[in-house]
Write a structure and sequence with these properties.
This protein is of the alpha+beta class. It has one domain (2-191). Helices cover 13% and strands 29% of the residues. Strands 4-5-7-6 form a four-stranded antiparallel sheet. Strands 14-1-15 form a three-stranded antiparallel sheet. A two-stranded antiparallel sheet has the order 2-3. The longest helix has 10 residues, at 77-86. Bound molecules: zinc ion.
């Protein structure tokens, strides 16, 4: 059995890549604005993260794991420390400048057969080719599962919501058991399809 990690809670109005402009409109953060597609407005999140998380993005939460408003996952210092101790591979943690939290990035992207992965694609951008939304999948059937039972993994094909692309993180049943023993606040697991 394979499970998907699901934070219980979402930060309200707290975005990795967006900020309010002086008129209160949500816009891409200034430090990433040059990355925005002129047509659909999406940015290359990997390039943005490689520039570093914005010092204005601060996470204050009592949970060990939480979703940002755009659906990215952030975890506490305790989560990073304990997971690193277990030596599970497949994740990379990018620390925020001003808090104990880190952004979770995939380190193992598994080959994915799009015809079997169950994605539903909507509104492809004529300029950058990204989808406005890429939802439902990835299904297990379309992914080449890792040979190790002890690694997080994500599909090589990212999901898209109207704001950003994002990854879903998968784990084995053995990992779920080990992670549950650590009693992280705010973590849940859903059976992967
Ligand atoms: Zn575009």
């Amino acid at each position: 059995m394979i499970y998907m990690i699901e934070p219980d809670d979402e930060l309200s109005d707290n975005w990795v890549f967006f900020e309010d402009d002086p008129n209160g409109l949500l816009v891409v953060r200034e430090e990433y604005r040059d990355l925005a597609c002129q047509c659909c407005g999406k940015i290359d999140e990997n390039v943005a993260i490689s520039r570093g998380p914005s010092p204005n993005f601060i996470v204050q939460a009592n949970s060990d794991i939480i979703a940002t408003s755009e659906g990215w996952i952030c975890v506490s210092a305790r989560f990073c420390e304990q997971i690193n101790k277990l030596e599970f591979g497949g994740l990379r943690f990018v620390s925020l400048a001003d808090s104990n939290f880190s952004i979770v990035m995939p380190d193992l992207l598994v080959e994915t057969d799009e015809s079997k992965a169950g994605f539903e694609n909507h509104n492809q951008c004529a300029s950058c080719g990204r989808f406005g939304e890429r939802i439902i999948g990835p299904f297990i059937e379309g992914m080449r599962l890792p040979t190790s039972d002890f690694t997080f993994f994500a599909s090589s094909i990212a999901n898209e919501n109207v704001k950003v692309s994002y990854y879903r993180f998968f784990v084995s049943e053995l990992m779920v058991e080990a992670i549950r023993r650590l009693e992280f606040a705010g973590i849940d697991f859903a059976e992967a399809m």
